[in-house]
Amino acid sequence: VATAASTQAVSSLEFLVRKVERSRAIDDADRQAILDLPHTIRTLDVHAYIVREFDRAVSACLMLSGFSMRHKIVAGGHRQIVAIHMKGDFVDLQNSVLGTADHSVQMLTRGSLLMVPKADMERLILDRPAVARALWLDTLVDASVSREWIANIGRRDARTRVAHLLCELALRIELAGLGKQNAFELPMTQEQLADATGLTSVHVNRTLKQLERDGVIDRAHPKSLLIADWRKLADVGDFNSAYLHLQVGGPAVAS
Amino acid sequence: VATAASTQAVSSLEFLVRKVERSRAIDDADRQAILDLPHTIRTLDVHAYIVREFDRAVSACLMLSGFSMRHKIVAGGHRQIVAIHMKGDFVDLQNSVLGTADHSVQMLTRGSLLMVPKADMERLILDRPAVARALWLDTLVDASVSREWIANIGRRDARTRVAHLLCELALRIELAGLGKQNAFELPMTQEQLADATGLTSVHVNRTLKQLERDGVIDRAHPKSLLIADWRKLADVGDFNSAYLHLQVGGPAVAS
DNA sequence: CGGGAGGTTGACAATCGTCAATCAGAGTGG
DNA sequence: CCACTCTGATTGACGATTGTCAACCTCCCG
Prior knowledge:
- The structure is a homodimer of 255-residue chains.
- Chain A is α+β, with helices and mostly antiparallel strands.
- Helices cover 45% and strands 19% of the residues of chain A.
- In chain A, the strands form three sheets. A four-stranded antiparallel β-sheet of chain A has the order 2-6-4-5. Chain A has a three-stranded antiparallel β-sheet with strand order 1-7-3. In chain A, strands 8-10-9 form a three-stranded antiparallel β-sheet.
- In chain A, strand 4 (68-73) and strand 5 form a beta hairpin.
- In chain A, helix 4 packs across helix 5, helix 6 crosses helix 8 (201-213) and helix 7 (190-197) packs across helix 8 (201-213).
- The longest helix of chain A is centred in the middle third of the chain and has 27 residues, at 129-155.
- The interface between A and B is large, with 59 and 60 residues.
- The structure holds a DNA duplex (30 and 30 nucleotides).
């Protein structure tokens, strides 16, 4: 795989360096190992697939812009979205370690991705333990989010469930620098919200309408979401951000 | 932390070596690093907590026997079980990396655990990349199971959901050498099955009864489960074991 | 201007939850 | 050995959250 050494590409790897640094102290050799990664940038349209079920992973993909969804199809053709990804998220680090994808990842909007060949990623992981630990941390946070989604879908009613998802998206969008916590563009249709919450689009519609009537959210256009009362939404949504592990990393191993 | 060097303890670390070896080729230094880990063995009674929400992790725990459940509590006090663990599973590797636990882990049966202090685990991870990768793999498989649970709870009806969970448990119990795929002791009450599937115990009861009437399962005692027709159960449960990633590891990085 | 995707709404159906009573089995102490 | 107790399983009646179906609307875009 050729190394794309355009200005754009180099700044993208620096983005990866900063991501890794957020969760873990890394040294110059670690930093250089990341900056030396061969890579390409891919821009994908809405609905384009990043990973397809049964694919064998060939690259690790880091989202640079846009939104994507991870989803599974069950018997009967129903779809369940199991994660939403945005700028700064790795979308198939797991597939690149596990081998065959057991689900698909598809763009929710147009966006661009940093692609690093699987073999180079593997080598980075084995050569640079501090980087490996930071990436592992990333997958652990993903796993924590998945567990919260299980609880959300399994044990909360529609109103709470939708409010919770909106809270999560709002917070993550703000953290990614893509909008304000209480005013952002919702990158999903109501059908997609339904597939993420285990509901139907009709019921999501009714639920959103109700939240709007109750003065919790405000929607000028159907897609733009204004959170009229964050406190209230977090309350309705039984939302506690602990599961996002925003301050992770923990102390380095004592030496 | 003192090293417990009883015969029992040593064989437990060998168990960890074998676990790591299953997913990844490791060398003698890796093997020795594992065998040198300080550790203790703890036996816990039914309902005992392995990890409590808000705890700061102090040890990584590997299950040696018995069953446990990972669960979250939502507003209203409802409980959602987000994972079932058994012999060979790590129960708080994630907490040991993430810091504070965002949920609890509790014994479903009496059982024993191998405990390794967090700091030693951290050091192992940084010093032995091949071991770190194997452990990472373990957490990735857990994450994959979580995603399947999201789909199971979000998009399948009660009958399918329960059947799917039974299939997963049957397969994992057989793989752990704790029973046969089509005849094993179910370590969970119907209320626990309900909390794992996002249903109520009453509805789980009706569903199990129906599966029994349909000749899919057979229950001599309420707790012993005989899968009368594995094919049929897997069919009813829309079960495909791919998400368990039973053949993982992938090729080592080309050198 | 036409087509299409997505949003909105109503009527009705059904899966699943709630409540409550009863039953079965295991462990305990007398 | 036998009441006693507790946990968990079972069942019925009823209610409600959520799904289904279908129509219509609105906006965007070519």
